[in-house]
Amino acid sequence: MLGALRGDRREVLRRAIGIVILIAATVVAARSAAGLADASPLTTAVVTVLAGSAVTLGFAVGPPVTASIDPLDPRRFAVVGPEPRPLAAALLLAGFLSVPVLVVLVLGVSLAIAWGAHGASAWASVASVVLGLATCVLFARVSMALGALVQRPRQSRELVGVYLIAVLVVVVPVGVFLGSLEWRGVVPSQLASAAEVLAWTPIGAAWGIALAPSAGAAVGSFVVALATVVLLALAWFVLVDVLLTTTRRPVAVRERGGLGWFAILPGTPGGAVAARSLSYWLRDRRYLVNVIIVPIAAVVSTVPLLVAGVPFELAVLLPVPIMALFFGWLPHNDLAYDSTALWMHIASGMRGAPDRIGRLVPVLLIGIPILAVTLPLAVVAHGRWAIFPAMVGVCAALFLAGLGLSSISSVVAPYAVSRPGDSPFQQPQRTGSGGVVAQGLVMVGAIAAASPAAWLTWQAINGETVDTIIALWVGVGAGAIVLVAGVAIGAALFERRGTRLMEFAEAT
């Protein structure tokens, strides 16, 4: 920590100014946290859980986003031949001695003062602060260790784009949610519900112990927080062992070669397929046209409903599930777009699973951010945040089930498409109806998989006493099952139908 104040004078001056600003901000935040003693218990609990979750999430995602260099990287100590377990324990303890952790400690003590004013027991306050600090430190340790395994000499344009998309997926929905709340001198019910959910998650459980609404909720948050600490500690010890026994691959040549996505993704068969697919999806106009048309078609589909008299608050919910359905449907004929390049996969003896999974990466990278941004906007236009979890379940079921069924369709029933370089609106003649049947089956299958979640969501929209969290898990579960099954079946068929796929690629 003192070494940070050595070196070039300008750099030392900037760091010193940053430390002064951080100290001042910490003092202000600590006074505000202690001032929660004058607020209501509900307000204090909500602020504690939300702020604690945000801080913990920052420890988890901060290192990879900022490309921070870990001064306690286990590989720095490899020259003295340490044993992995003692080294992991020592580095974990040293991780508590850092400026960010000391700031969190000060804020935690200030919050504990406010908790005590609202009747929280000393044991609950101590457990909350200790588990909160441990969770932050372990998230940072594990995050930096994972980053060290795939670290590149410099951040590429593609990697920066991925980070920006990740930030967009988190910031936009949260901003829309907070901006839609009605503040009338009390904590909005939606915010209280969000805090209650976060208190049962790994990032917020530790901060929900002291002022839990009931003894059962306090015990539940404590169990989740303790389990999170244990699992992260186990992951840290495993990662230290891997870092000490793994030789770092030279990557400077790959970066200098300008290989784009191939330099970012893992050097595995699945990573190679994903990199090639990303290059196509982001550059080939045939793919770009499909991506652009999906949101336009989804929005246009609401016009006939409005003309027919469907209430606006219902019609506005339809475009996002339609987009989820079409995004899952897009790769249903992905092999055909490869044209003769498909021979690389088959001639190299690639297994089916890497091919199937790698081809889904671009759709996930494009579809998830668009859905994450548009769904909160649709819910705000509808006016009831209570149905948001249910809508997430419906969209997840349509999207994931579509991807799983598309993984089968692209192998079983590929059909001719415009060749590379041709106009995306130019379609070749087809001699059969297999392509039409495949398209229809993928859509029908995705809708069928999402129908239970859609029914529960419809009941919630109509005011029935339906738990929207149940609709969320039903949709996510159904979509995940179809996705896993579809990838497995598609992988087996890809290996079995290699010759026919080569004949199809050569013929079209």
TrEMBL record:
Extract the signal peptide range. Answer: none
Instruction: Say which domain of life the source belongs to.
Output: Bacteria
Name of the featured protein: ABC-2 type transport system permease protein
| Bilayer-crossing regions | 12-30, 42-66, 87-115, 121-140, 160-179, 191-212, 219-239, 259-275, 287-308, 314-330, 360-381, 387-415, 436-458, 470-494
Which UniProt key words apply to this protein? Membrane, Transmembrane, Transmembrane helix
